[in-house]
């Protein structure tokens, strides 16, 4: 029955109601000082004004009560009747669906009642046989009744329009908030995916190099030095990538150079230096693909080779094939399965999920799984709309 409104709204409505009662009460008392009962409609309408936003139901009841009392104690419409349209407006703007239609019906009923109230004496005289009084009664009834009904309907319509505008504004705010939440979640997913790509690849290389260095530290010191140099360069590159990701988190809109297909040679060289032989085959002019397509392809190859280094048979080479078609880019990475470390049947690892998300982000498709004694990753990435813009390689190449 009572709507939640702010304390400020309650105070404002209370002040308006008190001012209404004081002003209209004084005016009514001046004209009918010897009839205190005539102040009752003023008090009822003042209470209805105070409750119109807090409890529109009670406000409408108060308005009807004031109208009934007025018809019993007054001879004609009074100035305080101007409060009734404000109450009808409040019912339409703040009330429930049922109350809104009750106020709509009250507009017509109120118009008819006001017409009868205004023309009642003329009807009484007409009942005695006066034709002129009958015409006057009909004119008063139709004129004042229509005026009252139209006034109340205008107030009701204004309330409905305000209600609709408020609801539309709330819907826009909710849509904006939902959009911000979705954007934030997408950004978190992107950062998590990038972090996984950078850290997983770098740690896999570092682990492979450190294990090899430990085995060769006595028999081949030069190989140990090369392994340590690779560990240092990979770690520094990973640290730089992590700093870029953290900078993107700290400053919105920060742009940075993303790896592209021009960086594949350097990527393959890192894996070869870690003990995974990689056979790379690619078509010409891949750098003319869009930036998003190139980034997705690079990360898919990176993650696939990282998994091959961690779980594959290093005695047999992995193959990377990139084929340009009129519609986009086909990426295929195949590595031998290590019998001692067969792939897990569950596709729920972060790496596979990240690769599928990479492909999906550019409206592509990716499939990955065992194929006999090999593990095959196959992706199709559509050509981006920004295909004419070449990607700048992370190392400065184009």
From TrEMBL:
Reactions catalysed: ATP + protein L-histidine = ADP + protein N-phospho-L-histidine
GO molecular function list: ATP binding; phosphorelay sensor kinase activity; protein dimerization activity
Keywords of this entry: ATP-binding, Kinase, Membrane, Nucleotide-binding, Phosphoprotein, Transferase, Transmembrane, Transmembrane helix, Two-component regulatory system
Keyword check for Kinase: yes
Pfam families: DUF7134, HisKA_3
Matches recorded under SUPFAM superfamilies: ATPase domain of HSP90 chaperone/DNA topoisomerase II/histidine kinase (SSF55874)
Superkingdom of origin: Bacteria
CDD domains per record: HATPase_UhpB-NarQ-NarX-like
Enzyme class: transferase
InterPro entries: DUF7134 (IPR055558), HATPase_C_sf (IPR036890), Sensor_HK_TwoCompSys (IPR050482), Sig_transdc_His_kin_sub3_dim/P (IPR011712)
Domain DUF7134: 9-164
Domain Signal transduction histidine kinase subgroup 3 dimerisation and phosphoacceptor: 187-250
PANTHER family to which the protein is assigned, alphabetical: NITRATE/NITRITE SENSOR PROTEIN NARX-RELATED, NITRATE_NITRITE SENSOR PROTEIN NARQ
Name of this chain's protein: histidine kinase
Taxonomic lineage of the native organism: Bacteria, Bacillati, Actinomycetota, Actinomycetes, Micrococcales
């Amino acid at each position: 029955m009572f709507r939640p409104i702010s304390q400020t709204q309650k105070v404002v409505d209370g002040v308006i109601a008190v001012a209404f009662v004081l002003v209209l009460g004084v005016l009514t008392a001046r004209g009918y000082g010897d009839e205190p009962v005539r102040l009752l409609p003023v008090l009822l309408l003042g209470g209805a004004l105070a409750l119109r936003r807090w409890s529109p139901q009670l406000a409408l009841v108060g308005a009807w009560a004031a109208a009934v009392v007025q018809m019993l104690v007054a001879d004609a419409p009074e100035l305080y009747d101007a409060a009734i349209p404000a109450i009808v407006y409040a019912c339409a703007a703040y009330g429930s669906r049922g109350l809104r239609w009750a106020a709509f019906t009250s507009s017509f009923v109120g118009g008819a009642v006001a017409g009868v109230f205004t023309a009642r004496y003329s009807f009484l005289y007409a009942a005695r046989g006066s034709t002129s009084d009958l015409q006057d009664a009909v004119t008063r009834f139709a004129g004042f009744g229509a005026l009252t009904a139209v006034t109340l309907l205008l107030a009701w319509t204004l309330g409905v329009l305000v209600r609709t505008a408020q609801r539309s504004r709330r819907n826009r705010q909710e849509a904006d908030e939902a959009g911000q939440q979705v954007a934030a979640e997408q950004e978190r997913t992107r950062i998590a995916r990038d972090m996984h790509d950078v850290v997983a690849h770098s740690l896999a290389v570092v682990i492979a190099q450190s294990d090899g260095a430990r085995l060769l530290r006595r028999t081949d010191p030069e190989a140990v030095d090369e392994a340590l140099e690779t560990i240092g360069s990979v770690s520094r590159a990973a640290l730089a990538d992590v700093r870029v990701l953290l900078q993107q988190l700290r400053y919105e809109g920060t742009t940075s150079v993303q790896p592209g297909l021009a960086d594949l040679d350097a990527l393959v060289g890192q894996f070869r230096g870690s003990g995974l032989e990689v056979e790379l085959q690619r078509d010409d002019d891949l750098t003319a693909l869009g930036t998003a397509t190139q980034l997705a392809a690079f990360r898919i190859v990176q993650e696939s080779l990282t998994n091959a280094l961690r779980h594959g048979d290093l005695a047999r080479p992995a193959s990377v094939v990139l084929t340009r078609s009129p519609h986009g880019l086909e990426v295929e990475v195949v590595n031998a399965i290590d019998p001692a470390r067969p792939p897990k049947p569950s596709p729920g690892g972060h790496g596979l999920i990240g690769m599928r998300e990479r492909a999906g982000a550019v409206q592509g498709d990716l499939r990955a799984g065992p194929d006999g004694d090999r593990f095959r990753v196959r992706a199709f990435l559509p050509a981006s709309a920004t295909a004419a813009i070449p990607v700048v390689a992370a190392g400065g190449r184009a």
